[in-house]
Amino acid sequence: MAYKISDACVACGTCIDECPNGAISEGPIYVIDPAQCIDCGSCADVCPMEAIAPEA
């Protein structure tokens, strides 16, 4: 199950460097490619807005 970034994202960039697979793309709200996400949770651990969570 991949992680997903919610509308609470402020595009701060903290999560991008944490992703070991490069699954996160920049934008007004960042996006995680579920095909590349390995469900490690590194991005969620560093998000200051708590905008990243496992997809339901």
Give the tags:
globular, about 55 residues, mainly beta, two-stranded antiparallel ribbon
Give an overview in words.
The protein is mainly beta and 56 residues long. It has one helix and four strands; from the N terminus they run βββαβ. It has one helix at residues 42-46, and strands spanning 3-5, 24-25, 31-32, 52-54. The strands form two sheets. The protein has a two-stranded antiparallel sheet. A two-stranded antiparallel sheet has the order 2-3. A hairpin with a 5-residue loop joins strand 2 and strand 3 (31-32). The longest helix has 5 residues, at 42-46. The termini are close together.
Name the strands of the widest sheet in spatial order. 1-4
What profile does the largest beta sheet have? 2 strands, antiparallel
Our count of helices gives: 1
Q: First CA to last CA: what distance?
A: 8 Å
The amount of beta strand, in percent, is 15-25%
Order of helices and strands: EEEHE
Find the structural class using helix and strand composition. Answer: mainly beta
